[in-house]
């Protein structure tokens, strides 16, 4: 192939020096233009120009007045004539042996024969140029070091507002206007815990006269660990491309970090520690992030696990896009192929051969990282050591890029747009450098506490101001000026959670392999009688488990207890698990299910209990293929109006039957039938000890947060959520779509998932037999955090009547959920 | 600059100086889209139907018959090539396999490409090759790649504004193996879901997708919409009435309502088809899918994919029992495909509708991937000699030569392009067509330049890989 190329080039050179006749020139030009492989500008031409020419004729340099930054400039310099290699002077200069004439000048390396051939063919093919591509340097060079921003405003003013006041003065902008309390409440709830405030919470907030109530609210919301975790899980799953199902799992080529992540969020693990555990995992629990997705079969050199590692670390933590540089020197920022491979080599356990556009260049990568000015990894150290060194460098006190990247993401989450935007273009200029740098340092000063940064942003007057109304599509806006927070569309998860809040249609089980509410209980909490989380029950089963016998595989039993309540209930929670599966029914309605005994389920059943007798039924089944251990365990705490606590546990007061009641409709149980026998007590066998803590945590958490609705972030993506923009997490995703598409609108208009949820909700709302007006009032308060206006109420009454049927209520629910006011966080 | 070698360097540079300085002072814009704008070719088709034979349709068992080897106990496997005899078609020099008699009758409307080739991706995983075929890019990729239907939706838009431009018939995305892998390419990727597929896995339930939800009659549906509009009109949040995002959201809801209440939606409803016509297609889900595709194209669909459905180890994915399975596939596909072509022709639509039959790769009895590949042998009944019927058929994944059939939409009629060897290995030996070039051909027919690109995350991303696809000009009429 090479000799063929040389021969070809020889002929071209003959042509260029006029050694051939016109007829042959024509023939060769034809040969050139019909060569099977056309020249690839990005991957073949750019590197040559960059190596040999751009230093003097690109960027801000234009030696001799000649710049090849763009095709236009290239041609204006009359250095080339597209389609006509003979008359393209730059080729002649490149080829020249005259030391006065040649390019590059004599002291620089020559352009090789192969490279000349490519350039010649490129000219012959009309010099194709990638649209928008330019060699011009990016004007902005992002700083690496952190910077302390002195505050100059009044110390009573919130730091963010001090900086923004100055910005507003400089840019002669009108001051921001504070938003009303109700909008603020809804915004803070959705932004910080991803839920709608209930009508009660709304009323309480509006009635609160304290001038500190907004910052108090922010503190309260950030203290709701469970709700905070299950909301921010979505953000982190997107950013760390973690999911419960997806590409790669089928072949075991991918591992979840869900359990680790969940715990890190609930504990609010300091972000530097969090980062170090992801980059240099000490256990398998967090290593899925650096291991990426192992595909079966061959993958391109730019997508090996090592390169994925480099891309993920750079994007997630540094806002650097190494995807271009994984294949060739980036055209859009300063990163080179070598940078990407060096970072990858830190992770690599084999010599990593550098590939440029999938072809080896006969060089292997040396481990090294992107900002050697902060220090570097020892290339000779073993891999785990190198990863630790990298983790230390990423989280280095002087790495301002790292802290700026995360605070920018948090600002984007709360304010609807980044200080640097897009969020992953951290090489571009922020619209307010002081603010970015201030937030970054604030994170460090607060021991990398992410909640502290969220609190700071959310307590600013800027966050509490009215959202900007945008007359036009902001996507391609280039001259951004901050004029307030931007409205955000509910994510797929927020939308589902909100619908489930309004309808009670949340699923009873979830997919994330986590124990909800998991935190470390302090030592003091264990085993004291006063602690409501002290375990009281025993594992129970039927006669098949008597005398240490193993119950048969597939055995299904019905367990029952009648719980008598002397008065109204304030809070009631149940935590239970069964080996192997269970369904819990209270008042014949299914409230929880579980299929994994290691994951006890917790539900709040306050609304399902009534004074007097309450029937509790658990249908539990044994699994396996041959007789094996089976059991059911349950703990419940019911707080009565007078604050006394009734404890219900699986114990000798339970009975069981072998006859299964019919299931009347999904989630509804028929009348259970006996004969009833006393259960067999199994004690608390050692093999089940691992769930003791999760059960106690579940009880504690549920009693304090008063809601354990399964959140959308914990369940696998389904058709509707995918339609609403929940991504396939094969790639890192750092922002969700802001627009509702027609296909989504169709799914919302007639999809069965939403329709079923609304139907269920409508039945509940109309069960209460309130008038249309009172349902509408409550719904509006819950969904939109405001009262309906008289005009709205009368429209609804005209359409649906004063007494609402379930169908009418369903249509009302749909109409409310489709309002932009509902679908947006304003 | 017409003057050649003699110009002195200093002279050259000084000559440049004047012009160059002036240009630089103007500050070169970063976006140079006007520099060499893309010229789209003139379309020869307005709609496209992709008939997708998911699972690996064996060319020697369908459109590229080789030496027929009847079943015989003890026959060495390497002697087994086609397990169906060749039959004549409406075109003299084209023969296809027995079992495809109806299609044989319309081959005079077809261009048959026998030399489509795929890269060897090491371990042959259907979904990776399907991803490659549907997006033009080999996974994994650093960005979510759009499906070719999404490219058409994005660049061309809908043909009829109420019919979604990209409709995907017959493939379940839940409850089947490799569903996550299927979802990864059944998407608009970075274009966003506006350009994504409307999925209709069960053709006979397609009507439901464009009807009000179960249990809601048209009257109630209309009332619900009216109530919604009134609430929007009376919203006290006046200042948001002009908000871009609010406007855009309401527009989408409005579009959805238009489709769900438009008379055109009857296109989705197979019960509207006359009985005799329905029966001509009805060989099962796939046949019904072909009928639905025809009805949708008649109503102005842009891109419709209809598949025999990919389910690991089922249908075309014959790791054993190949002959019998393929015989069943023949029965399922033969009548409806031929009927589709005839119906489109009778309605004057074939000229402007490109119909493509394709699969992610072919099959062979002994070679996995391409000759010399180290890909895993995934046949489930590995024998040297035929013992039972289940051994009879092509049970390995072959990427060296695959058939693609195209009808209508500006391609030649009764035309044969490319060739595979008659003896093993059955690789393309004439005019190999890569996926990039095949896509370039399809896009060219649709009036989309193979060099069409969008910038995503600073990277130019093209409809054919790195804008390198070149249309196979020879097949255009």
Task: Describe, in plain words, how this protein is organized in 3D.
- The complex is a heterodimer of chains A (826) and B (477).
- Helix content of chain A is 39%, strand content 11%.
- Chain A is an alpha+beta fold and 826 residues long.
- Chain A has 5 domains: 2-124, no CATH class; 159-223 and 398-469 and 482-486, no CATH class; 236-394, no CATH class; 530-707, Galactose-binding domain-like (Jelly Rolls), CATH 2.60.120.260; 742-825, no CATH class.
- In chain A, the strands form 6 sheets. A 6-stranded antiparallel beta sheet of chain A has the order 8-7-10-5-13-16, with no helix packed on it. A 4-stranded antiparallel beta sheet of chain A has the order 9-6-11-12, covered by helices on one side. In chain A, strands 1-2 form a two-stranded antiparallel ribbon.
- In chain A, α9 packs parallel to α11 (213-223), α19 (400-415) packs across α20 (433-445) and α27 packs across α28.
- The longest helix of chain A is centred in the middle third of the chain and has 16 residues, at 400-415.
- Chain A is globular.
- Chain A starts with a helix and ends with a strand.
- Residues 16-36 and 521-529 of chain A have low confidence and may be disordered.
- With 477 residues, chain B is α/β, with parallel strands linked by helices.
- Chain B has one domain: Alkaline Phosphatase, subunit A, CATH 3.40.720.
- In chain B, 30% of the residues lie in helices and 14% in strands.
- In chain B, α3 (126-135) runs parallel beside α5.
- At the A-B interface, α5, α6, α24, α25 and α28 of A face α1, α5, α7 and α8 of B.
């Amino acid at each position: 192939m090479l000799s063929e190329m040389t021969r070809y080039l020889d002929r071209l050179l003959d042509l260029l020096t006029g050694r051939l006749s016109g007829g042959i020139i024509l023939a060769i030009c034809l040969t050139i233009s019909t060569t099977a492989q056309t020249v690839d500008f990005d991957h073949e031409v750019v590197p040559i120009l960059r190596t040999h020419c751009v230093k003097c004729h690109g960027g801000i340099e234009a030696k001799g007045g000649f710049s090849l930054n763009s095709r236009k400039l290239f041609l204006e310099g009359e250095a080339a004539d597209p389609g006509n290699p003979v008359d393209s002077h730059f080729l002649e200069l490149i080829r020249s042996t005259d030391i006065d004439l040649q390019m590059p000048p004599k002291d620089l390396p020559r352009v090789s024969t192969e490279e000349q051939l490519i350039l010649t063919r490129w000219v012959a093919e009309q010099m194709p140029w990638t649209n928008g591509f330019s060699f011009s340097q990016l004007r902005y060079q992002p700083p690496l070091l952190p910077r302390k921003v002195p505050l100059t405003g009044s110390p009573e003013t919130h730091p963010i507002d001090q900086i923004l006041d100055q910005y507003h003065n400089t840019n002669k902008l009108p001051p921001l206007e504070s938003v009303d309390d109700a909008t603020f409440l809804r915004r803070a709830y959705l932004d910080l815990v991803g839920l709608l405030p209930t009508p009660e919470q709304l009323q309480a907030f509006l009635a609160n006269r304290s001038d500190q109530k907004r910052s108090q609210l922010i503190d309260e919301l950030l203290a709701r660990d469970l709700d905070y975790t299950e909301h921010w899980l979505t953000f982190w799953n997107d950013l760390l491309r973690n999911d419960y199902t997806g590409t790669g799992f089928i072949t075991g080529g991918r591992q979840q970090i869900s359990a680790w992540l969940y715990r890190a969020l609930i504990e609010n693990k300091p972000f530097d520690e969090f980062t170090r555990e992801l980059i240099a995992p000490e256990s398998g629990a967090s290593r899925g992030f650096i291991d990426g997705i192992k595909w079966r079969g061959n993958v391109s050199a730019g997508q090996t696990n090592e390169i994925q590692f480099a891309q993920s670390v750079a994007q997630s933590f540094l806002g650097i896009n190494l995807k271009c540089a994984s294949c060739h020197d980036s055209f859009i920022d300063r990163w080179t192929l070598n940078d990407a491979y060096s970072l990858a080599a830190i992770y690599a356990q084999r010599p990593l051969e550098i590939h440029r556009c999938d072809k080896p260049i006969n060089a292997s990568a040396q481990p090294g990282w992107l900002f050697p000015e902060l220090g570097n990894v020892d290339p000779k150290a073993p891999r785990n050591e190198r990863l630790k060194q990298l983790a230390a460098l990423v989280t280095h006190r002087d790495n301002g890029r790292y802290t700026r990247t995360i605070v920018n993401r948090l600002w984007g989450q709360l304010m609807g747009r980044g200080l640097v935007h897009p969020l992953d273009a951290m090489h571009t200029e922020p619209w307010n450098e002081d603010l970015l740098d201030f937030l970054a340092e604030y994170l460090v000063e607060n021991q990398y506490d992410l909640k502290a940064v969220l609190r700071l942003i959310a307590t600013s007057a800027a966050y509490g101001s009215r959202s900007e109304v945008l007359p036009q599509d902001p996507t391609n806006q280039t001259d951004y000026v901050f004029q307030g927070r931007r409205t955000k569309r509910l994510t797929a998860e927020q939308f589902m959670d909100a619908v489930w809040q309004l309808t009670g249609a949340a699923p009873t089980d979830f997919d994330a392999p986590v124990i909800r509410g998991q935190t470390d209980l302090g030592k003091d909490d264990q085993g004291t009688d006063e602690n409501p989380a002290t375990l009281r029950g025993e594992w129970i089963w039927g006669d098949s488990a008597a005398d240490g016998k193993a119950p048969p595989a597939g055995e299904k039993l019905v367990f029952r207890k009648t719980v008598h309540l002397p008065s109204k209930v304030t809070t009631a929670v149940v935590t239970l698990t069964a080996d192997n599966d269970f369904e819990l029914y209270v008042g014949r309605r299914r409230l929880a299910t579980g299929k994994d005994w290691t994951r006890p389920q917790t539900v709040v059943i306050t609304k399902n209990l009534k004074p007097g007798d309450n029937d509790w039924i658990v249908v539990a089944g044994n699994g396996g293929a041959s007789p094996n251990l089976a059991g059911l365990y349950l703990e419940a705490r019911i707080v009565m109006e007078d604050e006394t606590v009734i404890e219900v546990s699986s114990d000798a007061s339970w009975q069981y039957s072998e006859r299964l009641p019919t299931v009347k409709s999904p989630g509804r149980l028929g009348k259970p039938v006996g004969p009833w026998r006393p259960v067999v007590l199994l004690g608390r066998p050692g093999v089940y000890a691992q769930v003791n803590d999760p059960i106690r945590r579940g009880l504690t958490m549920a009693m304090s947060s008063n809601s354990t609705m399964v959140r959308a972030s914990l369940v696998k993506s389904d058709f509707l959520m995918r339609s609403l923009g929940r991504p396939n997490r094969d790639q890192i995703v750092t922002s969700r779509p802001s627009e509702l598409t027609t296909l989504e609108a169709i799914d919302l208009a007639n999809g069965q998932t939403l329709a079923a949820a609304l139907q269920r909700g409508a039945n509940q709302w109309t069960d209460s037999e309130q008038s249309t007006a009172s349902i509408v009032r409550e719904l509006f308060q819950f969904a939109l955090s405001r009262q309906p206006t008289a005009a709205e109420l009368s429209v609804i009454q005209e359409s649906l009547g004063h007494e609402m049927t379930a169908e009418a209520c369903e249509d009302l629910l749909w109409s409310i959920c489709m309002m932009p006011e509902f679908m947006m966080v304003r | 600059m017409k003057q050649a070698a003699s110009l002195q360097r200093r002279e050259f540079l000084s000559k440049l100086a004047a012009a160059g300085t002036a240009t630089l002072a103007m500050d070169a814009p970063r976006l140079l889209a006007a520099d060499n704008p893309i010229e789209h070719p003139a379309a020869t088709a307005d709609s496209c139907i992709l008939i997708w034979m998911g699972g690996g349709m064996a060319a020697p068992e369908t459109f590229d018959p080789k030496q027929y080897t009847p079943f015989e106990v003890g026959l060495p496997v390497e002697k087994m090539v086609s397990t169906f005899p060749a039959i004549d078609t409406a075109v003299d020099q084209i023969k296809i396999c027995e079992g495809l008699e109806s299609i044989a009758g319309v081959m005079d409307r077809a261009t048959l490409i026998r030399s489509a080739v795929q890269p060897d991706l090491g371990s042959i995983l259907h979904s990776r090759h399907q991803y490659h075929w549907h997006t033009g890019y080999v996974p994994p990729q650093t960005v979510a790649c759009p499906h070719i239907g999404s490219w058409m939706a994005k660049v061309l838009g809908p043909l009829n504004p109420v019919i979604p431009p990209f409709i995907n018939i017959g493939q379940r995305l839940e409850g089947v193996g490799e569903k996550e892998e299927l979802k990864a390419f059944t998407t608009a990727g970075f274009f966003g879901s506006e350009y994504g597929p409307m999925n209709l896995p069960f053709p006979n339930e397609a009507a439901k997708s464009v009807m009000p939800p179960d249990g809601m009659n048209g009257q109630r549906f209309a009332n619900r919409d009216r109530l919604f509009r009134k609430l929007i009109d009376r919203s006290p949040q006046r200042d948001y009435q002009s908000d871009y995002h609010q406007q855009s959201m309401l527009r989408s809801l409005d579009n959805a309502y238009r489709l769900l209440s438009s008379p055109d939606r009857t296109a989705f409803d197979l019960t509207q088809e006359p009985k005799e016509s329905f029966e001509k297609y009805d060989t099962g889900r796939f046949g019904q899918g072909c009928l639905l595709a025809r009805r949708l194209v008649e109503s102005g669909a842009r891109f419709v994919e209809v598949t025999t459905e990919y389910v690991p180890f089922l249908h075309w994915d014959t790791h054993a029992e190949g002959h019998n399975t393929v015989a069943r596939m023949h029965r399922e596909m033969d009548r409806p495909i031929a009927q589709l072509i005839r119906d489109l022709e009778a309605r004057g639509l074939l000229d402007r509708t490109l119909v493509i039959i394709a699969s992610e790769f072919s099959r062979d009895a002994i070679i996995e991937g391409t000759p010399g590949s180290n890909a895993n042998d995934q046949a489930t009944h590995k024998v040297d000699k035929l013992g039972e019927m289940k051994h009879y058929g092509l049970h390995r994944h072959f990427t060296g030569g695959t058939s693609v059939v195209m009808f209508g939409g500006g391609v030649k009629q009764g035309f044969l392009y490319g060739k595979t060897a008659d003896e093993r290995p059955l690789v393309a030996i004439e005019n190999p067509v890569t996926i990039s070039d095949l896509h370039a051909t399809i896009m060219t027919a649709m009036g989309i330049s193979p060099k069409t690109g969008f910038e995503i995350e600073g990277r130019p991303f093209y409809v054919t890989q790195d804008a390198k696809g070149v249309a196979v000009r020879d097949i255009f009429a």
